[in-house]
Amino acid sequence: MQRLGQYLPILDWAQSYGRATLTNDMVAAVIVTIMLIPQSLAYAMIAGLPPEVGLYASILPLVAYAIFGTSRTLAVGPVAVVSLMTATAVGNIAAEGSADYLAAAMLLAFLSGAMLLAMGFMRLGFIANFLSHPVISGFITASGLLIAASQLKHVLGVDADGHTLPEILSDIAENIGQTNMPTLIIGVAVVAFLYFTRLRLKSLLLGLGLSSRPADIITKAGPVLAIAATILATEIFKLGEAGVKLVGDIPAGLPVPALPSFDIELVMQLAGPAFLISIIGFVESVSVAQTLASRRRQRIDPDQELIGLGASNIASSLSSGYPVTGGFARSVVNFDAGAETPAAGAYTAIGIALATMFLTPLLAALPRATLAATIIVAVLSLVDLGAVMRVWRYSKADFIAMAATILGTLFLGVEIGIMLGVGLSILLHLYRTSKPHMAVVGQVPGTEHFRNVERHDVRIFPHILSLRVDESLYFANSRYLEDRVAALVAEKPALKHVILQCSAVNEIDASALESLEEINHRLSDAGICLHLSEVKGPVMDRLKRSSLLEDLTGEVFLSQHEAEQNIADRLALKETFTAAK
Amino acid sequence: MQRLGQYLPILDWAQSYGRATLTNDMVAAVIVTIMLIPQSLAYAMIAGLPPEVGLYASILPLVAYAIFGTSRTLAVGPVAVVSLMTATAVGNIAAEGSADYLAAAMLLAFLSGAMLLAMGFMRLGFIANFLSHPVISGFITASGLLIAASQLKHVLGVDADGHTLPEILSDIAENIGQTNMPTLIIGVAVVAFLYFTRLRLKSLLLGLGLSSRPADIITKAGPVLAIAATILATEIFKLGEAGVKLVGDIPAGLPVPALPSFDIELVMQLAGPAFLISIIGFVESVSVAQTLASRRRQRIDPDQELIGLGASNIASSLSSGYPVTGGFARSVVNFDAGAETPAAGAYTAIGIALATMFLTPLLAALPRATLAATIIVAVLSLVDLGAVMRVWRYSKADFIAMAATILGTLFLGVEIGIMLGVGLSILLHLYRTSKPHMAVVGQVPGTEHFRNVERHDVRIFPHILSLRVDESLYFANSRYLEDRVAALVAEKPALKHVILQCSAVNEIDASALESLEEINHRLSDAGICLHLSEVKGPVMDRLKRSSLLEDLTGEVFLSQHEAEQNIADRLALKETFTAAK
């Protein structure tokens, strides 16, 4: 039962579900539903899919997450970045608008769901840690720019294609002569209106005496107002006949549940992109969920989140949808509107299902330019150039990984961009640790503390070299340690004892063990004893399973202070002895 | 001039070249030449190339290394592992024995040389550090087994193909019925003879009153004796007519210098294997060179070694050769025979050139089984199962990488094997550091030293949590730190101060900085101050470029002792104050 509860968080909160919670969840669901309808249509457009697919992907996945997810307030569904990645992955395989394109998108969702589930059961949530913060931040910024560029064509009413910035822009430049004026006017007007609602409307409404929460909700409803207004304008001015591209007839009714077709070749082609989508979607979703959970002192379980998102994607795939994940904007709206349990998500699903059945005829006259304008405004808020500057100031290595991610994503595509960033951040990390900081240390007078001789006034002995290694010792830096010790020893002919202070050594792997044995052996040839100090418990436990401690010419001391004291005493004793002889 | 000297180590030693050195180098050269002739023929056979190509690859490369290399005693030429990798790389592209096969091998040497040179000029020698010791050791063991298996066919006189253990063994099993008896007798006899010379001959000779050095040299000449004997046997018993496969006519004379043909598609196909060959060859060569240099207290420069080996491979390519590197056995022989400068290598080159011109007719009657037997005995000594056991005992993670390398190499091929090992060792390293060891610490009574509360009897304060993080903080573990601090704080309701002891933190990257800011923020919400202690110089310098130090609710202390002392004093003061009120 406890084990079942681990995989079914719904058992946790459903027992104590009361009337007050029901009301709060219902209110939140209504607000999120209103927000989700235009968003779902728009994101389907980013993915190159028919608009109804966006709605389908906002029904069953929410129910699945309500059952398996651990966040109380996360709202799952299509999101911008994953939609872009879907367009890239599927666009390489089938022509936009074809049945194959949709089938590939469904298969992609299924694969992604299956991978997330597998990672969840194997508790592999830590894989997400390999995406460094600058890489994620850079990837989201670049994706925002790329999506905005890809939507420009809808605002201009021209044809354009391609999955990288140069491709998109050159296509648009080629066709700019065919710009449709009414379309452009709608697009620009909606962008202007949305920026107005975002930046000014709330303070205006507050000035008119409205209280904060309704003002907030009206502000968030900006896209819905824009949609209603442009549908009206289209009907009144017959804009469809003026060349304005419309959403057109959307099949009313719910999707028929069906398995995607498993073509083995297609599975092989989509496996890589599905993996990237899983990881990116997971990271995005978990960081949203963690942020919201910490505000109410709740916790989420990243490994169970993998299962929740996996179930959501499988559900999406089975209902003609495409890859989904937890979205930032809608989750914040859900949270702010007072949602208390995942049941709010299930109610939202009912709302979207009703809309899919009954509201779609109204949307036929919606100009695509309106949707494109809402997308552009939404995704440009993802672009965070301030973060780029902060990373530049703090760490050049992180900046390189971030810049590679951004440029790679914009110019080579989303998949290459993210892989470039991850690969580079791992290589740079290895490179940085391959030449670790090492400090010759001495005693701070009057204390038992040892610090770098170059930064502090410390006491040192001529016959003793104390070297603090500021890094775990492992394959990437073990040869460097050999070189460094050899060089330091060569500088000091009077040397009799070398003490390696291991306070910063958290691991000694098999390669480093070989190197230490080599160093011990070489120092011994030169008549120098090698000692270790402040070796950590776990490191010491492991060294006991090797022959280093037996072969060591010196000793292992609990503290650096004890080591120097002991050896200094012994040297003094020896000198006395020599003098007496 | 100094800059020129950096790239031309020959300028270093050529000035002081005297008669005694000349004699020593000449003697060593004669011995190495005798050893190299059969070895070169044999290694060419591993690579699937005509025997003379092995000789060609042992002439100009030695001259190039003598000019550009930094090791005084390294002997460059064809080696077993690189020959195997060549066979795999080229075998995927052309049929063995075809002109395309040879052309591809020459191009491979050129590409490998160009890559080594480029890495040398960019001083990228550290790339070799990414090969952990267990991965290299596992790779060499597996290559030894694979080469031995691939030579079985020559000992049996059957046809067999394939680049993985199952392929080779199933081919041999299929054709075992065609075994040629005279061939098998030669093969087994030579293997037995070589093991006898290796294990018994030296002590026998010493027993007969011979001194150590000539005994050693006679022992090392075992393969030459075996070759002479089997050539004689072939001539006497007309073994060629009995179905024993012979080396056959070798074109006498030196190779005509020529550029390899640069087909762009071929270059693309060979670039990956060339890179792997470069790195493996470099690592093998540098470790041999370093071992020998340290015996005579000399030093080698790994970055210049890249240039030396790069020049050697280009030279090999231009003279109809294939990829070369510094070999262990021949370098040791060169060293033991008394070589003092790289000139010995140049003299060896002259020796091989003379042999190529005048001795090759004698080799036509050499049975291939003899060469195969010498290879089998040589490569089986590379198999080091003891190392596998030692790594198993010391570190399971290293063992996993090692086992993956061995199994991957044997069953999937050399290229996949080595990449699997490197990839896995990097991932396992990241995984190990992603959940770093953290210890709650307290003061060892009577000292200023702080140790793990679970391992030592230490003094702790109820209002203060001192946490030592035993790892650099970076993207792979920054989220784990957030989780861990949150969990520890939740356990202790009385807590007012958290001190992060950073003595083991050698780096805080941009991701970890975000996490620290988040931790500081969350603790502040809970009324807890965050302090740092023992922050290292370089880490502190970087933190000053961020806003963390301004936002920090607590202070940064020089030592953990100072931090606890200070905070404990302050808490006492506060209590007095509260009491007085």
From TrEMBL, chains A, B:
InterPro entries named in the record: SLC26A/SulP_dom (IPR011547), SLC26A/SulP_fam (IPR001902), STAS_dom (IPR002645), STAS_dom_sf (IPR036513)
UniProt keywords, alphabetically: Membrane, Transmembrane, Transmembrane helix
Listed Gene3D superfamilies: STAS domain
Domain STAS: start-end pairs: 454-567
Membrane topology listed for this record: Multi-pass membrane protein
Keyword Transmembrane tagged: yes
Key word Transmembrane present: yes
Sequence intervals crossing the membrane: 26-47, 53-68, 75-95, 101-122, 134-156, 176-196, 217-237, 270-294, 344-364, 371-393, 399-428
Annotated GO biological process: transmembrane transport
Subcellular location: Membrane
GO cellular component, one term: membrane
Domain of life of the native organism: Bacteria
Predominant subcellular localization, coarse grouping: membrane
The name this protein goes by in its record: Sulfate transporter permease
Originating species: Nitratireductor basaltis
